[in-house]
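Problem: given the chain below (297 residues), write out its structure.
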Amino acid sequence: MSGTGTHRPGTDFPHLLTAAPLVAVLLLGVSACGASPTTAAPSGSTGAAASASHPWDGLTGAKREQALLAQAKKEGELSVYSGYNDEQSMADAFTKKYGIAVHVYSANSESVLQRINQEGSAGKSANDVVVDPSPDMQAIQSQGLLGTYTSEYRDAIPEKGKGKQWTGVRRLAFVAGWNTDHLKTGDVPADYSGFADPSWKGRISMELSDVDWYATVKQYYLDHGKSEKDVDAMFEAIAQNSKVAKGHTVQGSLLAAGQFDVALSVYTQTIERLEAKSAPVTYGADEHAIVEPVVVR
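Solution.
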């Protein structure tokens, strides 16, 4: 994906400002319940693992799915580690469709990465699939913990949406969300530079881990004529105005509770879930007043 601009409901994703990292799915090379039926031996492997053939080799479509399903049922269950809080609904749908139990461990992405590293160091990886941001995928890949996933579905993903041993499965849009009990649409700046004004002191929040959001917004302003000195000064002023939150779900909850007026880099789905519960939050989708630029991970 490429291009810059502001997301508006109904527009295509290529019009969004895009950060390189994607949320990714990763198959681990060592599993508590055996080698994944969709995992081939890493290149350079020797011995039986490298030369073994599988019933699904060379198959496509429904025939391949049935061969994979037969092997998966022999293993009996699937273990998923996720840095997001919406994996259980997909796991339930998978179990309903295929009759295979799915155990989901959900935590923030840092905790998931730490757990995988600890298990890998001990030689006791206890999961089949990981869903996490691609920077974490790259870190796990660098430690040699990944299997090689092959699929016609992976083949259909653009090169920018996958790594050597991970595949992007979703795109997450960062937006500035605000508390509607505290602010009206016209009170919010048109772009992030407005939050450098001293009047926002103590009224905005930045998320601790959003380095890719920061880097992409910085590049956006550089591409639009600001000097590096000016962009750095802008972010320094924004940081001085901000309260720091750890975790986007936590940040969204604090926003809804009125702990600050604006969350600068919250996910659209976080705001939308809160809106569905009648929380006083928005990111301007209805008023077409979204703060520019929108960054997509």
